[in-house]
Input
Amino acid sequence: MDSKIHHPPHIYQDDSIYFVTARTYQKEKIFNTDQKKKILFKNLWNEFSKIDYRLYAWVILDNHYHIEFKTRLGRNLSKAINLIHGRTAFEINKIDNKKGRKIFQNYLDYCIRHEKDFYRHFNYIHHNPVKH
Output
């Protein structure tokens, strides 16, 4: 069995709405300043703009983030997240003087199924900071 196959497999669809959540490695509070949160958002916004993804909602907390957005080409999602994470890690590690430190543990993607599902995730994103 190929150990590089993700279980369950990611299924990326065109013109679909997704919810993505990602957390930091070992839940470390890496995004503990506005400057670091702005770096992640800048990289997210820049990459999504390049591939024509529409961002509906987002929140960046100290050790994780959530985003809800619409894809244009679903096959671009994995590469986009990896680029966002890589660029963000590079910039934040430079600030913290911790070259090569692992920032992100992983990410989870979920394809929104219907309008009620959209608003459930949309509201979750907006209420998540209150919870934390």
Summary: The chain has a mean pLDDT of 93.
